[in-house]
Every structure is written in structure tokens, then in C-alpha cells.
Amino acid sequence: MKGMLVFYPEKCSGCNVCSTVCSAYHLGVVNPDRSRIRVLRKEQENLDVVNVCVQCEEKFCIQACPFGALSVNPETGAIVVDHEKCTRCGLCIKACPYNGIILDPILNQITICDLCDGDPQCAKYCP
């Protein structure tokens, strides 16, 4: 596996820098709700967790897509979406056990972490 993000919940402060940087990098707007990475607070456990594509070996999303809209970038190892083929049926979202796939509420497009073309901005700016 070429690239993947590793998350350490014990180090996460819940600051949302990762989701802010992600939305700014990909969309040119600061909007964590449209980010490819989501920080969630688990109050009962007093813990912040991140939902993001983990670039799993099984590629459940690719297997679930009946339209061939998902593939792996051979250079980065990240999953990429072909928006020409994608029908937004949501089967990839349902297939992902990591909750790492998002339907952008404005663009109405499936979005998945693409590792920022091999230079993940979330990891770069995480305090």
C-alpha cells in the first residue's frame, strides 16, 4: 500500500485544523462540513475521532461500485472518483466500514480522501 493516513486519537485535540485545511485545499473554502476528513467528538469516551478514507487493502468501495467510478491512483495509492461515471447511488458510502466517503452537500458529488496527490495537507498542518 503506497499511502495512507494514520490517526492517533490520544493526540487529537479536536481542533479541526485537518478538516479546515482539507476544505481549503480542495474547494478553496473553509468549511469543515465539506471536508474529506471529519472530526467527531465521542463525549462518553472523552475522545475525538477522525472519519476519513483509510485507503484500506480490501477496497470495499471499489467492489461496491457497479459503474466503475472508483479506482486507485497508481502513484499515490489513493482512491479517486471518476465523476463522469459516478451516479451518486451511495453504494460506496454504505460499503465503507470506516465512514470515509462523503456526499458533498453543495456539489452533490462523492468525495474521498485523495491524499492531496501524495502530500496530505491534514497531516502537514496537524498541530
From TrEMBL:
Signal peptide positions on this chain: none
Which top-rank group of organisms is this from? Answer: Bacteria
Give the originating organism: candidate division WOR-3 bacterium
Name of the protein described by the UniProt record: 4Fe-4S dicluster domain-containing protein
Q: Which residues form the 4Fe-4S ferredoxin-type domain?
A: 3-32, 43-75, 77-106
> Cross-referenced Pfam families, in alphabetical order?
Fer4_4, Fer4_7
Q: Name one GO molecular function term.
A: 4 iron, 4 sulfur cluster binding
**Protein keywords:** 4Fe-4S, Electron transport, Iron, Iron-sulfur, Metal-binding, Transport
Question: Mind telling me which InterPro entries this protein's record contains?
Answer: 4Fe4S_Fe-S-bd (IPR017896), 4Fe4S_Fe_S_CS (IPR017900), RnfB_subfamily (IPR050294)
